Every structure is written in C-alpha cells, then in structure tokens.
Amino acid sequence: MDCVFCKIINNEIPSEKLYEDEDFIIIKDINPVAPVHLLLIYKKHVPTINDLCEDDRRRFWKVFEIIKNISQKLGFDEYRLVVNNGASAGQEIPHIHFHIISGRKLGKIG
Ligand code: AMP
Ligand code: ZN
C-alpha cells in the first residue's frame, strides 16, 4: 500500500510515536502549523470518515479520551482538532487522521 501513514504504522518509515494502542498512533506532524501539531492516526487504512463501517465506528469512542490524555501528558489543555475529510476539504493523505493543534493563539477557521 503506497500510503505514508500505513508505512509509518508498519515502521517502514521511522517515526517517534508519542502514543500507540491497537487502533491508533500519535505522531508529530512533519510540517507543524503551531508549536504543538500532532496527528492521531487510525491504524487501519480507511480513506475518509465516509468509508467507516460498523466495526470501525465502535473503535472511535476512545478518540477523545486519547486526545485528553495526550494533552494532559504533554501539558496543553486548549487545542484545536481538525479532520480534513476529502480532497476539497484539504485532505492530502487519504487515511483517517485527526490534527491536534495547540501552543499559540489560533484564528478563526475558514
Ligand atoms: P491532511 O492534509 O489533513 O491529509 O494532513 C496530512 C498531514 O500529514 C500534513 O499536515 C502533513 O504535514 C503531514 N505529514 C505528511 N507526511 C508526514 C510524515 N512523514 N510524518 C508526519 N507528518 C506527515
Ligand atoms: Zn494508509
């Protein structure tokens, strides 16, 4: 699979994993837009939210818990979550991920 996130998950591209469980990893974005810019990446290659099936959905309940825990661990409690869902929404890598952005005052989304 020619997908950069699958390669990171499979350790074909080295990365510093700040968190890992059976379903998700967290890494630092290679091109950060703020002092804190993490990516919470689903381990299974699902391109967009629109492609999730029942089995995937039941794994997503813990996403906010994971995000809350990493924010407490790294010491930031205010942050923006972004999911670019589809190319026209700015999604460059078609493999579901959440951007976690913090560390500076953020402007309006648009
Ligand atoms: P998106 O445009 O929502 O698909 O976001 C993809 C993000 O992945 C961008 O913010 C990129 O900077 C980031 N990215 C691309 N390649 C890597 C990589 N090898 N390691 C970490 N982040 C990456
Ligand atoms: Zn993938």
Unreliably modeled segments = none
The CATH topology corresponds to: HIT family, subunit A
Mean pLDDT rating: 96
Radius of gyration using CA atoms only: 14 Å
Number of strands: 5
**CATH homologous superfamily identity:** HIT-like
Report the biggest beta sheet as strand number plus sense, adding barrel if it closes: 5 strands, antiparallel
Outline type: globular
CATH architecture: 2-Layer Sandwich
User: What is the distance, rounded to the nearest whole angstrom, between the alpha carbons of the first and last residues?
Assistant: 33 Å
Give me the strand/helix succession. Answer: HEEEHHEE
* Count of the separate structural domains: 1
- Briefly note the structural class of the backbone: alpha+beta
Which strand order spans the largest sheet, edge to edge or round the barrel? 1-2-3-5-4
Approximate strand percentage: 15-25%
Describe the structure.
15% of the residues are buried. It contains 3 helices and 5 strands. It has a single domain, classed as HIT family, subunit A (2-Layer Sandwich), CATH 3.30.428. The protein has 110 residues and is α+β, with helices and mostly antiparallel strands. It is globular and about 35 Å long. Strands 1-2-3-5-4 form a 5-stranded antiparallel beta sheet, with helices on one face. The protein binds adenosine monophosphate and zinc ion. Adenosine monophosphate binds next to loops. The site of adenosine monophosphate has 12 residues, from loops.
